[in-house]
Amino acid sequence: MSPQAQAISNLFIFTMIIAGIICLGIIAVIVFSVVRYRVRPGQNGEPPQIFGNTRLEVTWTVIPFIIVTILFGTSITTMLDSSPGQISLQGAAAHNANRIHVVGHQWWWEITYPSGVVTANVIHVPVGQRWVIALNSDDVIHDLWLPQCGPKVDAVPGQTNYMWLECDKAGIYHGACSEYCGAGHAWMLVDVVAEPLATFQAWERRELRPAPAAQSLTPAAGFTSKEVAAGARLFQSFSCQGCHYIQGVTGKSTRPTVDYAPDLTHMGSRSIIGGGVVPNTPYFMEQWLLDPDKIKPGVHMPNFQLSTPQARDLTAYLESLR
Ligand code: CUA
Question: pTM of the full predicted structure?
Fold first, then answer.
């Protein structure tokens, strides 16, 4: 958990305790009143009617006021702790080398590092370092929520929001889009992989390498280089590069600022397909290519009516892009 998320968790528990005490108090008063003031045999007529009791009214105004004031104070402190210095955060985002640009798309996350690494749906960070996320959207409003790493932050088209990302323990932290954004909203998952600095740097170096030509690729397990080469040709002939960039392969000299679909340069090394709808295995990749909409209803990727052998060849190619 990050210090930012810890602050939110502490506030949650504190609020729960106060609410729990109030709840127990109310239950106690109800039970006491029901038992103590129940109708007894031989009793008739209405109980005495009370119209105003200053002492009671002052009590039930002052106590909630104090409670709400305390919660207000702790909420402000938590906001400052979970998202310290929004202004310095913007400044940090402008200058900080530890900056990640995250863009929400229907329905996946595009992640760009200052080093030039572009990836999708899986954010890598070194353990213990504080990073700034600059968050945008390319279409509708999304919301980046990494429960163990800090507050939810909206991804709004045309506006940049900022948040800290700091993981104090190595591991994988799951997150999701937390603002309804259309049919694929439920499958807009995101993972944070917090790893030692050396592992992170090795990952970054690997990600920066352009994809080699198909004939130089090592085929993924279970595939032949013939299938990989055939898949690479299919990638071209079906114009997959119209939406998907593959560094070193796709014909554009400069990559677009914002991708239309996930960068596939290292697709084979990613853990999930379709924003987390299925794990990245050859079986699911093939099913995905055969009918994306069946796997993820509403997905913008069209069904190219591939034959099964074509889907297999394309899978061979994509899974070999590591
Ligand atoms: Cu993006 Cu919900």
Answer: 0.81
